[in-house]
Amino acid sequence: KGEKSFARCLFETLLEIDNLHVPSTVTKGYRNKITYSIPLPQPLSPLAHDYVNNVCQVVASFPSASELFREVMVKATRQGHVCVRITVQMTKVEWKNDFVTYMCKNCPQLECLCYNETNTKARPTKDHPIHVLYGKPFVLETTLNNLEYQISPDTFCEVNHEVERLQYNQAKEWIVQYHDASRECTHITNMTLLVSGRDVSSFGLGFGSLVDKNGIRIFDCVLAVQHCPLVHKDAVATFLVMLIYSMQVSITSQSKKWFKSLSIMPMVQTLL
Predict the structure, then answer these.
(1) pTM exceeds 0.85
(2) DSSP strand E in 15-152: where?
(3) Half-sphere exposure of 77 toward its Cβ, with a 13 Å CA cutoff?
């Protein structure tokens, strides 16, 4: 409870600082991820990028889509690669092979095609299994300094690439300024990076790998606080790659128990 109260007070304080708010320069057509029911609503959301909406329309145009599919989710990466997850009404009708062929033909940038099933009107929870039809069970996104990290179909992630870029550039400027200033303080021997929210992989990996002008890594440790179990799962898989940078990584995920230590590898520790 003490750690939870401290974190809440910290973030409430930060939210009151106007200089920490980075406004978006794009207010329409910015969403790189969207979810629609099928049949698709008309008109489609003006907040979603045209490319994302077009992929949704491709899915909805599949023969018998209105009878088979309940929902479609599309995520587009910064490179234009696509992840598609559909929710299927349980049926004995064979549709998978035809659908994979159809999507590969009409969506050449497809990297992940998967589905979950339901036999009710309710949306499946994130605990429902995801079945891969084509590609990998995730799509690879990149940080602003071109490091890859994985995003699973239903993982909570940044939906505005432009805001992510603005935030990254501003935070990087502050990090460099503080790091240069701290070099003059002999009592500061190491720095820890705390990241939270939907961007724990993007910012944790992007900022955590920063080096100074002497090629020395700026942060000795990255601590990521996350409540979503899917983001946590993706972060663990992604941050294992950071072992090649000899970085000590800790990932924190809020669940029923605030802290429960789970040792993954010698240099990687997750706190569930």
Answers:
(1) no
(2) 33-37, 69-76, 82-89, 110-118, 131-135, 139-142, 148-151
(3) 24
